[in-house]
Amino acid sequence: MPEFKERLDEAMRIRDISAAELSRISKVNEGAISQYRAGKYKASQRSLDKLARALNVSIPWLMGADVPMTDEPSAPSLPSPAITEDTVTFPVITSVAAHYDSVSIDESATGEKIEVPRAYLKGRKAEEFCAMRVRGDSMYPDFRNGDIVLVLKQSTMNHSGEIGVISYGDDEMTIKRINYVDGEDWLELVPLNNLYPPKRIEGVDLESCHVIGIPRVLIREF
What we know:
With about 220 residues, the protein is of the alpha+beta class.
């Protein structure tokens, strides 16, 4: 049976999260996390609960039990999709962070492409969209680390509370729910994962904010 340290390493690798980031999210000391990963100490029940919630895994799985990784119910059987040959191919050009203060990564060098049924574009032209890979878990469970989103390019939000892709600061780019009030000098970036706090941008800092677009299609591998 896998040990706790092995499961902790596996969960961190799958979630693509560093010890420092896990410590920040879980409020478990980074030094303690390093000791757990080295197998020198066993986590207390309280620390186990914090780590499991931060990593979105079940406590029994994290402790090494032969159980599902998460407590989520099994997905229902899906019907076979209708096959269509009328598709559009998009290169995955960049990453978009589902956390804060992360510079966008150029993903085009991988040569990865996705095929999307043309019907998903709802009559729009292919050049109105771009494909981006989600990195991080602040938008979990709607958007997960590794998902690909097809983003409809536009420079403004349709309304407050809509999920959008926005750039800000020094080349940071993120996907968040975006709240604002017309005529007021601020906006708020709101994660769906309640382990992450909202981020308020206001005043002169707004000058560096630019809406990239709105996610319209989600592609996820199971």
